Amino acid sequence: MTSIQPKLTLSTPSPVPTPSVPEPEVPERARRRQFTVSFKLRILQEADACKNGELGALLRREGLYSSHLTAWRRQRDQGLLSTFPPRRRGRPPKDPTSAEVARLRREVERLTRKLAAAETVIDIQKKVSALLGITLASADDAGRP
Fold it and tell me: Are 80 and 108 part of one and the same domain?
């Protein structure tokens, strides 16, 4: 009986391809898919033309769920998939004039408080001068030498 022995060679080792580790491309936050009106209408038209068994293939090919078709058919029947542009979601943008008005109102309030403080100081000065008997120069006399 002859035994088969592997032949050992002492050559330089060939680079062994190391299995590459796939880097998962997971987004930080999942985004909702948004379908355009034209896409929805095209899919609904294709779905309505499907025969038995073809609808599942259509949904798999497009990566959709049957609930999408149900919601889109309801929207189509209500007239929501007509030529209206899509409504923007979220808060409406702020009007630039409203920011300017708010800034000016804050400035008016600040200046009003400053004026009230200045009037209080003037009233105190008048009372002190009256108590001490000091006559203050009037505004008419202030301009004359």
Answer: no
The boundaries of the domain holding residue 74 are: 34-84
Are 47 and 69 in contact by the 8 Å Cβ rule? The answer is yes
User: In this structure, is residue 16 part of a structural domain?
Assistant: no
pLDDT tens digits along 73-116: 998 888 877 766 667 778 888 888 988 999 999 999 999 999 99
1 in a domain, yes or no?
no
> According to the model, what pLDDT value does residue 15 have?
58
Q: How far apart are the first and last CA of the chain?
A: 139
61, part of any domain: yes
Q: What angle do CA 117, 121, 124 make, to 5 degrees?
A: 140
